[in-house]
Amino acid sequence: MSNTDMNMRGKIIFYEERNFMGRHYECMSDCADMSSYMSRCHSCRVESGCFMVYDRPNYMGNQYFFRRGEYADCMSMMGWRDWIRSCRMIPMYRGSYRMRIYERENFGGQMYEMMDDCDSIMDRYRMSDCMSCHVMDGHWLMYEQPHYRGRMMYMRPGEYRSFREMGYGGMRFTSMRRIMDSWY
After folding, report:
1. List of residues 6+ apart from 111 with CB closer than 8 A
2. Any residues with CB less than 8 A from the CB of 33 and at least 6 apart, and which?
3. How far apart are CA 60 and CA 141, in angstroms?
4. Domain-by-domain residue ranges, the chain?
5. Cβ burial, residue 64 (10 Å; 0-12/13-18/19+)
6. CATH 3.30.70.270 fits 1-88, yes or no
7. How far is CA 164 from CA 85, 118, 140, 160, 173, in A?
8. Span 96-181: which CATH code?
9. What is the reported pLDDT for 129?
10. Beta bridge mates, 88
């Protein structure tokens, strides 16, 4: 495989112990359940691409974004008590970005169309809550707190009618950021 092919696909290596020790598992695509490959995961190395990791199988639970780099102690860094259970590769995207955010579920209430990062929907739009969205173009990260802090959720193109029904009922997303090709 050429370097160009590998950069387009992405590669992440998970290790059972901190500091890249113990058994490891190399992944170059989505993995819905890592338990068949390893019993736990406490560190990882992203050699290329970007990935979302999840603390539950089937891309559920808390999410965390990883780009190229070394993460010697993932659990402490993310503040998780559990370990990484699944991961999703974020495809490289070069193009325009467009997302509509809505104040209420099922695309109700105020609507704003975004084409760039927003560090606070309250400051920019006077919108206190975002409960549904429609991602038309690009891949995005939504954050629980302003200025891209707190828990996050990966959004790929599609309609998201109810964050509550997706299992994010207790979260309020207040800032959004595009996943840019320069991050790869």
Report:
1. 100, 101, 102, 103
2. 57, 58, 85, 86
3. 15
4. 1-88, 96-181
5. buried
6. no
7. 22, 22, 18, 10, 11
8. 2.60.20.10
9. 87
10. 52
* Strands 108-114 vs 11-17: parallel, antiparallel or unpaired: unpaired
Q: At a CB cut-off of 8 Å and minimum separation 6, what does 97 contact?
A: 114, 115, 116, 137, 138, 140, 178
Element (H, E) at 74: helix 74-78
- What b/e readout covers 103-126, taking b as 16+ CB neighbours within 10 angstroms? beeebeeebbebeeebeebeeebe
Q: Is 152 left (phi over 0), alpha (psi -120 to 50) or beta?
A: beta
| pTM, to two decimals | 0.88
User: Per-residue pLDDT for the chain (184 aa), expressed as one digit of tens each?
Assistant: 444 343 467 999 999 999 999 999 999 999 999 999 998 888 999 999 999 999 899 999 889 999 999 999 987 766 666 688 999 999 999 999 999 999 999 999 999 999 999 999 999 999 988 999 999 999 999 999 999 999 999 999 999 999 999 888 778 899 999 999 777 6
**Two structure tokens written together for 17:** 């112990």
Q: Which two tokens stand for residue 97?
A: 């970005």
